[in-house]
From TrEMBL:
The lineage of its organism: Bacteria, Pseudomonadati, Pseudomonadota, Alphaproteobacteria, Rhodobacterales. Residues 195-262 form the GHMP kinase C-terminal domain. InterPro entries: GHMP_kinase_C_dom, GHMP_kinase_C_sf, GHMP_kinase_N_dom, IspE, Ribosomal_Su5_D2-typ_SF, Ribsml_uS5_D2-typ_fold_subgr. This is 4-diphosphocytidyl-2-C-methyl-D-erythritol kinase. It comes from Albidovulum sediminis. It is an enzyme of class 2 (transferase). Belongs to the GHMP kinase family. IspE subfamily. GO terms for molecular function: 4-(cytidine 5'-diphospho)-2-C-methyl-D-erythritol kinase activity.
């Protein structure tokens, strides 16, 4: 018997850095959604714990013991499964690929074994992004990532994700921050449609964007190229970069924008996807 799960890209539509804890971790206030593009996992009972990685982005990873999928299995005390990870998301790119994989592995193993999801997984022992990835739906995320409040009522929306092929280490970006005392997110008003969402997001920021652009100036180019596309309501970096998103009202505009970007920048990873509701 095989159980399968999907590990969607996590997108921080807004990310405010509101403080820093004594242990160096940063306090965040973030509006997180998931896109209909991601990695796939298949878990099958086997003689020992083993990870096989394939897919278009497999080359960026090895099945090292510190792979987050293996760490997730060990966290559950699981030693007898073979996990196939089909990697579509660029690695170390601000869309939480590793965290989404870990969350998908936890869900799939628990389903295979008929277990409930362990509460402890929600305290972020495998990384700050794992709790929200376990939920996989729109949420406001606070603390260092462990406070997750699911949000309902976000309007349907489409995203174009673009990554210029540079990987950024999350600690390096946090380390390059000039300020760590941002205000929390403004209260979320009722949102009738995606234009309302864009207007709200325009009052927010990604506080990691300037630091990431200082490390990799091409990120500014990506944000500009997305924002120039017809129908793009807002463009911004996700997480600690370098992936950026453009927000679109409809699928046709997003598909055309993605095609235009791929044509102009054949070396970039570009995907169009709906926001998962
Ligand atoms: C920036 C975000 O992508 C926003 O969603 C996440 O907070 C990062 O989540 P993640 O990649 O799962 O992060 P972790 O693996 O827990 O942490 C990697 C490193 O990022 C820094 N880090 C991460 C999260 C956080 N709230 N404060 C931090 O300062 C720390 O240096 C940490 O050692
Ligand atoms: N299954 C995995 N997929 C991707 N990266 C992994 C995985 N397991 C371990 N890693 C390691 O985790 C690090 C972060 O990769 P990931 O793709 O999760 O970053 P990210 O998209 O920047 O995440 P975030 O948005 O949560 O900061 C990389 O250095 C990578 O080597």
């Amino acid at each position: 018997m095989t159980t399968e799960d999907f590990a969607p890209a996590k997108v921080n539509l807004a990310l405010h850095v509101t403080g820093r804890r004594a242990d160096g971790y940063h306090l965040l206030d973030s509006l997180v959604v998931f896109a209909g593009v991601g990695d796939r996992l298949a878990v099958t009972p086997g003689p020992e714990l083993r990870l096989i990685i394939d897919g278009p982005m497999a080359g960026a990873l090895t099945a090292e013991p510190d792979n987050l999928v293996l760490r997730a299995a060990r966290f559950l005390g699981e030693e007898r499964v073979v996990i196939r990870l089909t990697k579509h998301l660029p690695v170390a790119s601000g869309i939480g690929g590793g965290s989404a994989d870990a969350a998908a592995a936890i869900r799939a193993i628990c389903r295979l074994r008929g277990r409930a999801l362990p509460e402890a997984a929600l305290t972020a022992p495998l990384g700050a992004d794992v709790p929200v990835c376990l939920i996989g739906r729109p949420a406001r995320v606070q603390g260092i990532g462990e406070r997750v409040e699911p949000l309902s009522g976000l309007p349907p929306a489409h995203l174009v994700l673009a990554n210029p092929g540079v990987s950024l280490a999350t600690p390096a970006v946090f380390g390059a921050l000039r300020r760590r005392d941002g205000a929390p997110l403004p209260p979320l008003p009722p949102l009738a449609d995606v234009a309302d969402l864009a207007r709200y997001l325009a009052t927010c920021r990604n506080d990691l964007e300037d630091a990431a652009c200082a490390l990799e100036p091409v990120i500014g180019e990506v944000i500009g190229a997305l924002g120039d596309q017809p129908g793009c309501l807002l463009s911004r970096m996700s997480g600690s970069g370098a992936t950026c998103f453009g927000l679109f009202a409809d699928r046709t505009a997003a598909t055309e924008a993605a095609a235009a970007l791929r044509h102009r920048q054949p070396g970039w990873w570009v995907e169009e996807a709906a926001v998962l509701s």
